[in-house]
Amino acid sequence: MVKVKNKKRNTAESVNDKKASKNKKVLNPFEVHINKEKIRVLGKKAKNDRGLPGVSRAKALQKRKNTILPEYKVQNKSNQFTDKRIGEKNRSLSADEKSIARYTAVRMNQHKKKSIYNLADDEVLTHKGQTLSEIEKFEDVPHSDDDDDEVDGQRNSGRLDSSFVEDAHFGGGMLKKADGAKSHKDLIEQLIMESKKRKAEMQKQKMANSDLTDKLDSEWKDLLPIVTNSNKKEEELAAAKVDDYDKVMRELKFEARGTPSDKLKTEDDIAKEEKDKLERLERERLERMKGNVFDAASTKIVHRSADDLDDNFAYDSDTPDVTLSYNDGKSNVPMEDEDKEEENENEDVEEEVEEEELETESEDDMSDLKEDEESSSEDEDIPIVEAKVLSKKESATKLINGKHKLDEPEEDETKRSKLDIKDPEKIKEDLMFRKEMMEEARKELPYTFALPENYEQLQELLKDKPSHHQSVIIERMIKCNHPSLKEGNKDELGHLFAYLLQHLSDICCDIEDCKDVKHCFDVFACMTPQFFDLAQLNPETSHRSLIEVFKEKQAEYRKKPTKFPTVEVLLYLKLGSCLFSTSDFRHLVVTPSLVFMEQMLTWCKAKTRANVAYGLFLVSLIAEYTTLSKRYSPASIKFLCGILHMAIPKVTVRQIKVLPPFKHISSSLVLAEQVETFDNPKLDVTDLIDVKDFDDAFRIKAINVSLGLLKYFHSNCQPLSSCPEIFETAFNYLSQLPKENYPESLSKSLNSFLETLDEGKNNRTLEYVVMEKKKPKALRLYEPNIVKIFDRKMHKSQSKEKAERDKLLHKIKKEKKGAIREIRRDKAFLGRVKINQKIQSDTVRKEKVKKIYAEAASQQCALNAMDRYNEVRSKKR
């Protein structure tokens, strides 16, 4: 048998191993989760091959209890306890060091104070932005009747004086003065009389002091300008200009504001309100046509007696309730019999006046009033309102230009006497005024219009109407037939848009002189807002109608491509820019109209004065179309260059080239003589059909307008690298114009534009077209051929930057999924906490309810026992 060496050592090691094995926690094999791998690699160490979900879950739960649960408990709670003592935040200090630091701070604070009695030396007390020293000026000190000022050693207040207190309360009184002593009641009465007397004297003195103070203040204000040497006059102060910022601030300050409870009106609500307003105004107009003055306040007042108990009550906001009262035996509410008598008397007087007028005067016939009154009684749709007999002063304040003001209250009928009503002259004046009012109402435009069924009905409405009246008619027609008010109005308004286009065409077809052209443009200017509203309400129909018009006009133009079309084409093109967006790359209406204008500028000849004006109008329309898009229009630049060519004097030896349809020898716009001034620098509408020859005024206006359009197009094309080439022809033509014959302002403008073009041409830097440089090939070197190991993953062949970006995106996605998972678990944890709290609160509540029921049962038991005892006792008796 082998002898064991160092037996003690071996026994010690065995004991340690046993202790370690005991302390080592034995894992439950059912708690261990083995993570399987798709591809098992031999010899590869895996970090996450085994996991303990129970342990991880417990750790996560404990972590949430330490972090989320305290935050949840203090949620929506603002109170917190913070220890601001010196040294508490610094945990490295010991208790003794903290006490020493606090003692030092206290001693330093004591040394800062100048005196032990001065508690706040450096603090400045303020009230409403002013210090107490500024406030305590003792100006206009409020006086009180209970001041404690002493006069002649006695107080002026109504309090008990010292002598009375000494005699009545402290041993004096009856004992001190036995002979002729007064009773306590007499003493009190005497004291009251003296106090009242003192108060009256003090009040009188205060009033005198107040009057003297006011007088002194007024005199001081008069002397103040002299003392302060302020010699400013009132006119200078009034003439001082108000700052614009202050003016805007005052306007914003006093501007009407809405309340948060106010409901914002929708488009349908606004349309309904507009329709109701127009219908109300139309009813008022019809009433005025019949001689009645429409007023909501003139409705009949319903009598309510004192015994009315509101039986069969039904609220009606239009009928005001008035309590019956009497003044000098007359009621404030006219009774039905009195009303009938007054109406009969009025009718008799009117009949007498009418008979006298028929006999004496045939021109002033009042039969139309009678007919209107009969028609008003037969009409059921219009509410009948009792007409009041108005004097001329009252009617002048309430009827201005045939329009009735509803906001001004009328005079009460009870204030008018029966003598005035029975006066024939007064009735005659009132009837004459009513006739004038009816004539004014007939002249007014109706406030409500139905949509026309065909074009002929629209022509009847607009026939012989001025332009502003036509605009008002269409506007009211749109408001009364808004698409939100009735189904089918949208399609009808689309038809109205087409009818208005036809109406515009018919007006332009009858042009004979300059007045007709102005009338066409006035109608167009007034109708443009209505065209825009109709295009917004039904955009599909408006697009389709305008496209059809452009197709028709372009087909007519192709028959004679060298002549400009009629004026109506200009109006349609202008309408397109007003209704639709001109900044789109391709638009259903704007793009064809732009092509149409460029065709006309390319092929139409500018022979007459009207042709030149027509072409310049088209160029201005193109400028308007390209304001936002900044597009280049070669036809516009070519036409403007042609206009400049027509203004260059031609020499037989030298020919100046120009593109067709302009001719080389054309010189209609040449200014032969010098013109010093020109009044109107812009073209007029009448120039579109003017058949006169070219004169100096038109030549100057044409050159001025062409120069302005060239400047505009140059500002649009300035960012382009080819801008000098585009305006090279214009530069050559401008340099050959006879500038000495033009007015000074126009010649300066020409020279400045020439300098701008020359400067842009000289300062431009041209970059040559160069082939793209290729990356040089690397030298062929001996490098190891590195072959990537295939790891069963699809790797994309991409650049390093893109690979890094994909890697970051993958990390972001992974972190996002992890964050969502943690948020979901936190939400579940808080849900469990809330459920536990609810269960605990329900348990406490149930216990309390049980306790209450038990106490109530015991009380009921005691009550029942008492009742039984009383019953037994009563039976024994």
Automatic annotation (TrEMBL):
Regions of biased composition (Polar residues) lie at 320-330
Primary residence? nucleus
Compartments reported by the entry: Nucleus, Nucleolus
Compositional bias ranges of the Acidic residues kind? 335-383
Asked if the record carries the keyword Cytoplasm, the reply is no
Which Pfam family is one of this chain's hits? Nop14
Q: Where is this region: Disordered?
A: 1-28, 138-164, 305-388
* UniProt cross-references to InterPro entries, sorted A to Z: Nop14
For this UniProt record, give its keywords in alphabetical order, as a comma-separated list: Nucleus, Ribosome biogenesis, rRNA processing
Q: Which domain of life is it from?
A: Eukaryota
Q: Does the keyword Nucleus apply?
A: yes
Stored PANTHER family:
NOP14, NUCLEOLAR PROTEIN 14
Task: Name the job this protein performs.
Answer: Involved in nucleolar processing of pre-18S ribosomal RNA. Has a role in the nuclear export of 40S pre-ribosomal subunit to the cytoplasm.
- Which family does this protein fall into? Belongs to the NOP14 family.
Protein name stated in the entry = Nucleolar protein 14 homolog
Instruction: Give the originating organism.
Output: Nicrophorus vespilloides
